[in-house]
Specification:
453 residues; mainly alpha; two-stranded antiparallel ribbon; 18 helices; 2 strands; globular
Amino acid sequence: MKKTFHFKLSTTQAVMLSFFLAIFVGSILLALPISSSGSEAVPYIDALFTATTSICVTGLVTLPTVTTWSTFGHIIILILIQIGGLGIITILFGFMIMLKRKLGLEDRILIQDAFNLNTLSGLIKFVQKVLLGTFVVEGIGALLYMIVFIPEFGVRGIWISVFNSISAFCNAGIDIISEDSLCAYVFNPIINMTTCLLIFLSGIGYIVWWDVLKVLKNVKKQGWKCFRYLTLHSKITLSATGILIFGGAFLIFIFEYHNPLTMGDYSLVHKLQAALFQSVTTRTAGFATIPQQNLTNASAIVSLLLMFIGGSPVGTAGGIKTVTISVLLVSALATIRNKAEVVLFHRTIPKEAVSKAVAVTSISFIVMFTSTVLLSAVTDAPALDIMYETISATATVGLTRNLTSSLNLWGKIILIVTMYLGRIGPISLLLAFNKKTENKNIIKNPTEEISIG
């Protein structure tokens, strides 16, 4: 009898392949003459770079988005951003749910792994809420942007508002307003507030949304004490996010207070607003209201740390995530204090979670370090500018100190690979950890003590 071989993709392979195919299709579409605002098609390497930065919701661009691409090109970029933000698997199963297609056990496991969830129950409702919540928040963001953009740009302001809202929520940082991001709106409270809220809401993750909403229903009965019933994940996420945002804003405010190239000449209110925006946008959003190349070295280093940490799990943000860094710090503190258990908010953190945190951070650091070395080998830019670029790509942030547009072919290829690995690397790592193996070693290797530190 003839043997038949069935090739089955693992969840990790499905995620990686879906992003790769989306990037490839997007690059082909952007390389078409119809996507260019000029008479000739954009070089393929730049189309590939733009497709990658859109799908990976990074925001680094080799060519100005507003002037390089036609309306068709802008539509393709926006679709890629939305797909990249939500995830191809989420959108695919969203359509299946809309068409009332039944999801089998394998489909549910794929969704569970894609979102790194701990249960198979309620997955269909979870996907529905993710899609509905995303479109509602993006719609509200677009309406708020229209208050400013319609009076300034007329009817085109509607399209700009929709584009900016989706880009901000998906943490892409790409806009079709100007070549200087949002620097022209550094004093505009509506633009600043709307962008920061979109970045914050997408950055804390969907799980926290539902948890907070569930707890808020009990405010009338139990008062604000009801927040003690938040899950451990939500408590860590919200606490770490608050510390990073306001701590980062405070440091940037101090370091840039007298800098005439950034906010030295601003009023106190505008300085606070600009510092807060800079701290929020480093959570992998990529928009800028002050030129990044003009930041003091101290502020740039603070921004590097904030970019590397990024947002929170099960959202659209990148980086190693707030929960990861929180677990690492508490684990280190427990080791220093000679404690056997890692405890946060009176709850013991599983050892598997600590191992995942170490692994995600290590892999992300390796990608960032390798990219930095390679980019340094093909460009003679200052070391700080190169690190800003590579960490921005690894954490899918999109902030640059004006280096992206001057990259040569090899530099573009290095960043394309870095953005791809930054988007799927930590995800794939977590999925690999979640994959259960049936064969377990019965015989364990002998243990031997080693010296650390």
